[in-house]
Write a structure and sequence with these properties.
The protein is of the alpha/beta class and 494 residues long. It folds into two domains: 271 residues, Aldehyde Dehydrogenase, Chain A, domain 1 (3-Layer(aba) Sandwich), CATH 3.40.605; 182 residues, Aldehyde Dehydrogenase, Chain A, domain 2 (3-Layer(aba) Sandwich), CATH 3.40.309. Strands 14-15-16-13-12-18-19 form a seven-stranded mixed beta sheet, with helices on both faces. Strands 9-8-7-10-11-21 form a six-stranded mixed beta sheet, with helices on both faces. α2 packs antiparallel against α4 and α2 crosses α6. It is globular, with a radius of gyration of 25 Å.
Length: 494
């Protein structure tokens, strides 16, 4: 892919890594090298952070009005939409997701993320209150202004599963609030993130406001601990999230962590079972289960379990597995051979321990090339199995049964994670009751991952820290400042 940009983007220019280091980016569907990408070192991260600090402290971006920034960000979103097919194909090749999903959802959502937060920032106004006070024997009036200046320099570290969507989900509010930033995409799928540099230049985003540093662990560690970085938004695994948080503690950086999940699908007997089976299948097998909100645990009422599993197996059989670049493909490969082996280890261990394999559990015969793994359904699982307790981040759905509502809630909460949950029922009172008692950051009732961007996104327990979306994102990327003005009756001498 000689025409695809693979270099770092620093201070408005594409540049080679200081040590000329590069890494191979492998295409999941072909197992071949897709591109050779510049690998940022700690020195490169420092260059990017210094450029971002210069833009924050002396550049025009934070001093523009929110409306002026919104106009530029609107052009940025236009540029993403203009390249929708190109970016979607690139992401499909880099990640392995079906091209239709990449174009129609991820690229579309990326542009929407930018536009949405540009609009929110224009309503993120100063607040004023008035009060009375006494000072040095005088009766005074106080005007209290709450200003909302940008934090300064943000660092955004994203995973490989939905890089364009997740990158812009943080980039939108960070830039709209007037910050500059350093974006670090995963080495597993960096190409669409790197492409944002050219689009930013065309839109008129000033040099240094957006910097992009693909690289390995050294780059991420250097970014998390860099003294020029004021705030970090991290999306990824819990183990890495803990290390990021520890690095932030050294200089008291603010941090938001969107980590893993082990989200339950609670299916009650009164639900529309046919529609629910389609919804549950989508919640786990979309993106081959490589999603933080994947509904990876099926907790189904015992008296309908057999019928529901038959419906679910039919949904699995309908999935069109194939080349992610082909229109109509619904299910592509996993990100890498190592990740496929990891997913398989959970399944192999569960089956050896007595679990019943109802579907999948292996690579398909066709396609013969690529890191494919069939959509998998595991019944009769022991709650102590790793497949039940740990995030697999793959197309594996485990099955548990319950006899009453209390038991369902207990099973749903029997995890260290708390990102999302899905409740399938026709009874509104039950839905509200169960949603209130499940310990997660988000609960969907009779749906999967439909949301208004103004609402909070984030998890409880080991699924993260902080919330994103609407005002929650703007609060993270701004630093409220009090300006108190006192005035009173004019004093006259003599």
């Amino acid at each position: 892919m000689k025409d695809v940009e693979t270099r770092l983007f620093i201070a408005g220019r594409y540049v080679e890594a200081a040590k000329s280091a590069r890494f191979a980016d492998i295409e999941p569907a072909t197992e071949s090298e897709l591109a050779e990408v510049s690998s940022a070192s700690a020195d490169d991260v420092n260059r990017a952070a210094v450029a971002a600090r210069e833009a924050a402290d002396h550049g025009p971006w934070p001093r523009m009005s929110a409306e002026a920034r919104a106009n530029i960000l609107g052009r940025f979103a236009d540029g993403i939409e203009k390249r929708a097919r190109e970016l979607g194909m690139l992401e499909a090749r880099d990640v392995g997701k079906p091209v239709a999903e990449c174009v129609n959802h991820d690229v579309s959502r990326a542009a929407r993320n930018i536009r949405f937060f540009a609009a929110v920032a224009q309503t993120w106004t100063h607040e004023a209150t008035q009060s009375d006070a006494k000072f040095l024997g005088r009766d005074l009036k106080l005007v209290n202004l709450t200003e909302r200046p940008p934090v300064g320099v943000g660092a955004i570290i994203i995973p490989w599963n939905s890089p364009l969507m997740l990158g812009t989900w943080n980039l939108g509010p960070c830039l709209a609030a007037g910050n500059s930033c350093v974006l670090k995409p995963s080495e597993m799928a960096p190409l669409t993130s790197i492409a944002l540099g050219e689009i930013a230049n065309e839109a008129g985003i000033p040099p240094g406001v957006l910097n992009i540093v693909p690289g390995l662990g050294e780059a991420g560690a250097a970014l998390a601990s860099h003294p020029n970085v004021d705030a970090i938004a991290f999306t990824g695994g819990a183990a890495t999230g803990r290390r990021v948080m520890a690095a932030c503690a050294e200089s008291l950086k603010r941090v938001t962590l969107e980590l893993g999940g082990k989200s339950p699908n609670l299916v009650f007997a009164d639900a529309n079972l046919k529609q629910t089976a389609a919804g549950v299948a989508r919640s786990i097998y979309r993106s081959q289960g490589q999603s933080c909100v994947a509904g990876s645990r099926l907790i189904v009422e015992s008296r309908v379990a057999s019928d529901f599993l038959e419906l679910l197996k039919k949904e699995i059989s309908r999935l069109k597995i194939g080349d992610p670049l082909q229109e109509g493909t619904e299910y592509g490969p996993l990100i890498s051979a190592a990740h496929r082996d990891r997913v398989d280890s959970f399944v192999t261990e569960a089956v050896a321990g007595g679990a019943k394999l109802l579907a999948g559990g292996k690579a398909p015969i066709t396609p013969a090339t690529g890191f494919y793994y069939l959509p998998t359904l595991l019944d009769e699982v022991d709650p102590n199995f790793r497949a039940v307790s740990e995030e697999i981040f793959g197309p594996v759905l485990t099955v548990e049964r319950f006899d009453d509502e209390g038991q369902a809630i207990t099973s749903a909460n029997a995890t260290r994670y708390g990102l999302a949950a899905y409740v399938w029922t026709s009874k509104v009172d039950r839905a509200l009751r169960v949603a209130e008692r499940i310990k997660t950051g988000m609960v969907w009732v009779n749906s999967f991952f439909l949301r208004d961007l103004r609402t909070p996104f984030g998890g409880a327990k080991m699924s993260g820290l902080g919330r994103q979306g609407g005002r929650f994102s703007m609060e993270f990327w701004t630093e409220p400042k009090l300006v108190c003005i006192a005035y009173g009756e004019e004093e006259h001498d003599g």
